[in-house]
Design goal:
Residues 12-128 form the Gfo/Idh/MocA-like oxidoreductase N-terminal domain. This protein is α/β, with parallel strands linked by helices. The protein has helices spanning 19-29, 43-53, 64-70, 85-94, 109-122, 136-146, 171-174, 178-195, 301-314, 323-342, 348-353; strands at 9-14, 33-39, 60-61, 75-78, 98-102, 126-129, 153-161, 199-207, 219-226, 230-237, 250-255, 258-263, 266-271, 283-286, 289-292, 346-347. The strands form 2 sheets. A 10-stranded mixed beta sheet has the order 14-15-13-12-11-7-10-9-8-16. A 6-stranded parallel beta sheet has the order 3-2-1-4-5-6, sandwiched between helices. Helix 5 (109-122) packs antiparallel against helix 10 (323-342) and helix 8 crosses helix 10 (323-342).
């Protein structure tokens, strides 16, 4: 099915500077999409993207309203700062366009809910690019959890350490909660995907070390209680000193029949009864542990986001990370931020009720 593409769909990309510039490259390479135009408030970014990816400058605009009027297309990819998403998403949905938007869906839960409802009202797809769940390793962990070998997951520990410097002009450097809002949101979404359930309450503290180059808190400790009495402990830092993890972080999942360790793009299952373990295809023993071969994926990461968006439209189904589903990832993120600000537990239902 992956290669059975009868016709590419037409895509308008809004935001081609910075992260959007790399998105334009992915769209250019995609067998599912054809970029028909670019929108950006920066003419410099427009010109660079157009020159690099062969876009006619007559199809480049600084005003999305003009692009909507002048161009013929099926869907919109929005890669702009979070505070702009609300207006852009609603405008495109109202114009009858499907929308794929970078995370976070919004910096406000009320606006996020309105976007999800507008998608349903307009009968157009709204998908959030939570691309971290579209990688081979995390899909492999999900496969192991669903295999029956592990039993019920009960405890989850995530350790994330990175030190990216986006530059003072980047919106992340100016955010009040850059780690939680722009990075941990990926890990929170991975948790929901792997556990197959939603969070109930969250406790968090965040802080900013003296050496931080971020305006807002770049380090956070988070405790989350999920449905089914599943406990999660998360530590994340965007100003790490010394050792760094991968962007996914290091994961340890403790289950009734064993544990899963996922780090450095390797998935290992350690069964409770090592010598009585049933070895399965796709696994091999190493020092009493079962190393799991990563599941094959023709597309990964953001390339898979583009594929999933295309499939949702052509098969007329909800995207895996639809705007509606993503509300719980967003509510968990907002809940963690609120807890860090006021102290104490924050219940996810309280965040959702704000809508």
């Amino acid at each position: 099915m992956l290669n059975d593409v009868k016709e590419k769909m037409r895509l308008l990309q809004v935001g081609v500077g910075g992260w959007g510039y790399s998105w334009a490259s992915l769209v250019k390479q995609s067998p599912f999409w054809e970029a028909v135009g670019y929108v950006d408030i920066s003419t410099e970014s427009l010109n660079l993207a157009a020159q690099t990816y062969g876009m006619d400058t007559k199809r480049c605009f600084t005003d999305i309203q003009i692009a909507l009027r002048e161009l013929d297309f099926d869907a919109v990819l929005i890669v702009t700062p979070p505070e702009t998403h609300y207006e852009l998403v609603l405008k495109c949905l109202e114009e009858g366009k499907h929308v794929l938007v970078e995370k976070p869906l919004s910096n406000n839960i009320d606006k996020a809910v309105e976007m999800a409802r507008k998608s349903e009202k307009c009968k157009k797809k709204l998908m959030v690019s939570q691309n971290y769940r579209f990688k081979r390793a995390v899909r492999t962990v999900k496969h192991v959890l669903e295999s029956g070998l592990t039993g019920k997951p009960e405890s989850l520990f995530v350790y994330f350490l990175k030190s990216p410097n986006f530059g003072v002009s980047n919106f992340r450097s100016r955010m009040e909660n850059p780690l939680l809002m722009d990075m941990a949101i990926h890990h929170f979404d991975q948790m929901r995907y792997l556990l197959g359930c939603n969070p109930l309450r969250v406790w968090a503290r965040s802080y900013n070390p003296s050496w931080s180059w971020f305006k807002g808190d770049a380090v956070a400790d988070v405790i989350i209680e999920f449905e089914g009495d599943i406990q999660v402990s998360y530590h994340g830092s965007w100003v790490a000193r010394g050792y760094e993890t991968t962007w996914d972080g290091n994961w340890k999942i403790e289950c009734a029949l064993g544990g899963i360790n996922w780090a450095n793009n390797e998935v290992v299952f350690v069964p409770r009864e090592i010598f009585n373990s049933v070895f399965n295809p796709g696994m091999f023993e190493r020092d009493g542990k079962m190393v799991v071969e990563l599941v094959p994926m023709e597309y990964e990461d953001r390339a898979y986001s583009l594929f999933e968006f295309y499939q949702a439209i052509t098969l007329d189904r909800d995207p895996e990370t639809s705007g509606k589903d993503n509300l719980y990832t967003l509510a968990l993120t907002f809940g963690a931020i609120k807890s860090a600000q006021v102290g104490g537990w924050v219940y996810i239902d309280e965040i959702m009720a704000q809508k």
